[in-house]
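Please produce the structure of this protein holding zinc ion.
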Amino acid sequence: MEKIHIFDTTLRDAEQVPGCQLNTIEKIEIARQLEKLGADVIEAGFPASSPGDFASVVEISKVVTRPVICALTRAVKRDIEVAAEALARAKRARIHTGIGTSPHHIREKLHSTPGEIVQRAVEAVKYARTFVDDVEFYAEDAGRTDDEFLARVVEAVIAAGATVVNIPDTTGYCLPDEYGAKIAYLANNVPNIDKAIISTHCHDDLGMATANSLAAVRNGARQVEVTINGLGERAGNTALEEIVMAIACHPELPFEVGVNTRELLQTSRLVSTLMRVPVQPNKAIVGRNAFAHSSGIHQDGVLKSRETYEIIDPERVGVDESSIILTARSGRAALKHHLGRVGYLPGEKELDILYGKFLELADKKREITSRDLEVLVGNEASRRDRRVHLEALQVTCGASTIPTATVRVRVGEESFTATAHGNGPIDASFRAIKSVTREVLLEEYLVQAITRGSDDLGKVHVQISHEGRVYHGFAANVDTVTASVESFLDAISKID
Ligand code: KIV
Ligand code: ZN
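Below is the modeled complex.
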């Protein structure tokens, strides 16, 4: 069995997507969960891009000690210096530096020549090696780079000290056999390739990121760059859960990964909640329908033998919906214990706030599951950072009435009240809010129940736009109109 290294870039490639931004505390929570999951490398950020990214790499380096902590840079000296400084406390640090290698990147983005690109790549790797022993080089847009030139770059950076060579299909352009052949070409034609690990980094623009990553592994790659839930630039990256389960389900593939698959669902939900991006119901492995059998024929088949329609035992990926864990009689210690189990370790002050919210919820919804707790944490995280707060909401709706909403919101020290009519309670509420805050356009609105039962929490994700920029909001409440309004305010709060 050959080891496939799992390199998670949720905190870098996914986090740079508009709307997915996290604060340092949230990033640490996710990094801790990734460590528990068994990721070999965590790309914690791009320190030169912002003070927030810098601080997150510093803090993650201090508390997450088993995986390698990696920081991204351009092939620019200052970026490399900043990354090295951010990684100073990491037990095992890696600098991930690189430059575009495709004709388009060289000509249009870098206004350079192939010879100069090789030189800049070599200089960046050599400089990074003066700070750390582990340097990964990425050849941006390798998917559209000519194989011979790519081999020249790869040979040069390995000679300069690169320990890992990343061959990104940055634009998600390649087909699996084409990408596999590219990796095989490098494995067979770069004389010093045995001195480095080949890494894959695939984007999903044509829905082939997982297939491409697997093709690469079968042709010599030994590191796969992935994100939780496949989040990432545009259509996203290869999903960690897909690559791990594809390898786990196919014993004929002679590879092993060090991931604890029972943590997959938990990790997916934590990332979805904190990044405020819902998981599509039919998402492979972690979607809420991934193990639901709806047609009578399928249900009958599964009852006779689970394997009739299931290739994965749901428990293997952490699906255990039946575990009811807390009630209104549970104390603070029990809440703290169960929050820890879902990967969240609040400080005492935050625990007090969460406990109050927990009791409010437990009064309305008798049994609180781990899923409810995750949402409670996400809800509080979004409320904490909000600039516009809901003080009061009253709606009238139903057959033969004109839907009307009155809202009172607080912005800083000031409160504003407005009333509006609309097509329904949500429309009326949003109109009232807009009249006292900002003129925004609602781009997307999604309500999901968390588990089951009409007393369940409703999760609302909204996407709004304002002056050409997109903002995401998230909230959950047993009252879906309140959740909708809170989620709308969460998004509006992010407008500068
Ligand atoms: O997609 C890409 O090429 C990247 C690199 C920066 C590794 O994300
Ligand atoms: Zn990428």
